[in-house]
Specification:
25% of the residues lie in helices and 22% in strands. The protein has twelve helices and 15 strands. Strand 5, helix 5 and strand 6 form a beta-alpha-beta unit. The longest helix is centred in the middle third of the chain and has 16 residues. The chain binds NADP nicotinamide-adenine-dinucleotide phosphate.
Length: 390
């Protein structure tokens, strides 16, 4: 898998220079080795699954004399934070810590990590993102005589932390829109066939995303056309997200067998139809919504932190028309199907002028076999992330 970070506006594959595209603060690290250590901590953070919610996904490693002493990440709510997990049974005296998020300073389910780090004799801490709510960890460390470098902003640390930032700052669920399309921008043929647009590598990657979310949402059209499993497969065995069906008119009530088959994950149906609960009972929980703009707030109240929206075009279009959607992940396959009536990834009302187009920021390209993943942020919640890509 090859990863390439770019900003969409300045993308030129031949002139690509990853360091030029990182923010200046990443350059405040004295050497490329230090940047590599911090990147490693961010990668470790990415191993965390939805089991950490409502906590953030965080990774850390300790280094001394050019040797990695230990590394780890936060595995699940109530378990050790990354700094503690990485430092288990290791002599940390004189070591440096590289961590994707500022060590915490507060007593929650576990004691403050800043206290743990200082007590164990760590001499230097380098962190990527400042804690967007509590803060104070860097100060606590400095006052204990630890050298602190941070925040050291970079695109991937921001992207990993954004769902947590939206949750704590806006009390709303983070929405990642994901689709797989052909070179000519189609997600299904005219007949509705969409299996499969992308190769095995890309499909496997998309299943890794399902471990990172606690909800997976599709529209009624997709449920009727595909009866998707919405589980975690392709070698991943993380926690399966809870299915959410967007069905304003109650068209999927006829899919009783599908709902019955998902009952251990207790599907949620979101609808405009007011006598709806009778239709799905007892196989799904029904959420009645009369205002689109409240969707992410309603999902948060239902306990969802991060929802992966997997189409189809009707659902994506309705969300984007209502300014909903925080991140977009598009898998692009080198195939062409054509056909004026073949389905596209985003329907809805759309925009009249190109100048009104919604633009993703901090876009990252990853090649997966023959396919490409284009991953960009539509909104930024971390106070430090604002304006970084503009
Ligand atoms: N390649 C991929 O990544 C991918 C992923 C998913 C799906 N697909 C394909 O996409 C196709 C299904 O897409 P689709 O667009 O037909 O269905 P969809 O997006 O799955 O479902 C659309 C739902 O949203 C509702 N809706 C549409 N516009 C709305 C608006 N402005 N306000 C409120 N609700 C609105 C529709 O209502 P009504 O009930 O009134 O129509 C319908 O219930 C299938 O062929 C599937 O195979 C491909």
């Amino acid at each position: 898998m090859v990863e390439v970070s770019v900003m969409l506006k300045s993308f030129n594959a031949l002139q690509y220079n990853p360091f030029k595209l990182m923010s200046n603060s990443f350059m405040q690290l004295s050497s490329k080795t230090e940047r590599d250590y911090l990147n490693r901590a961010i990668k470790l953070a990415g191993r965390g699954s939805s089991e950490v919610f409502p906590n953030p996904r965080v990774g850390a490693l300790y280094v001394k004399d050019g040797r990695i002493l230990g590394e780890g990440y936060h595995h699940a709510l109530g378990r050790d934070h990354a700094e503690v997990e990485a430092g288990k049974n290791i002599d940390l005296e004189g070591a440096s810590l590289y961590v994707s998020l500022e060590p915490c300073s507060h007593h929650g389910r576990t004691p403050p990590c800043a206290e743990f780090v200082a007590r164990r004799g760590v001499k230097k801490v380098v962190f990527a993102m400042a804690d967007p709510i509590h803060g104070g960890g860097a100060e606590m460390l400095r006052s204990s005589g630890v050298e602190v470098v941070g925040p050291v902003f970079c695109r991937d640390s921001l992207a990993i932390l954004e769902p947590f930032c939206k949750n704590v700052i806006s009390r709303r669920t983070y929405l990642t829109l994901k689709w797989a399309m052909t070179l000519d921008g189609r997600i299904a043929t005219e007949s509705g066939d969409s299996r499969w647009v992308t190769s095995k590598d890309a499909r496997a990657h998309s299943h890794s995303l399902r471990c990172e979310v606690d909800g997976i949402m599709v529209g009624a059209g997709t449920l009727l056309a595909d009866k998707p499993d919405l589980g975690v497969r392709h070698g991943y065995c993380g926690p399966a997200p809870r299915p959410i069906i967007w069905d304003p008119k109650g068209k999927t009530a006829e899919c009783q067998d599908w709902y019955k088959g998902k009952k251990e994950r207790s599907p949620v149906v979101i609808t405009f139809s007011d006598n709806a609960s009778l239709k799905w009972s007892p196989h799904a929980q029904v959420l009645f919504l009369d205002d689109w703009s409240l969707l992410d707030e309603a999902l948060f109240q239902e306990g969802f932190h991060h929802v992966l929206v997997e189409g189809g075009g009707g659902l994506h279009g309705a969300l984007l028309d209502h300014q909903l959607g925080d991140r977009v992940m598009t898998y692009i396959a080198p195939k062409i199907i054509g056909g004026a009536a073949s389905k596209g990834p985003v329907a809805g009302l759309g925009r009249e002028l190109m100048s009104e187009a919604k633009e993703a920021q901090g876009v990252k390209l990853t090649t997966l076999g023959e396919d490409i993943l284009m991953d960009g942020l539509l909104k930024i919640y971390h106070p430090e992330g604002q304006g970084v890509f503009s």
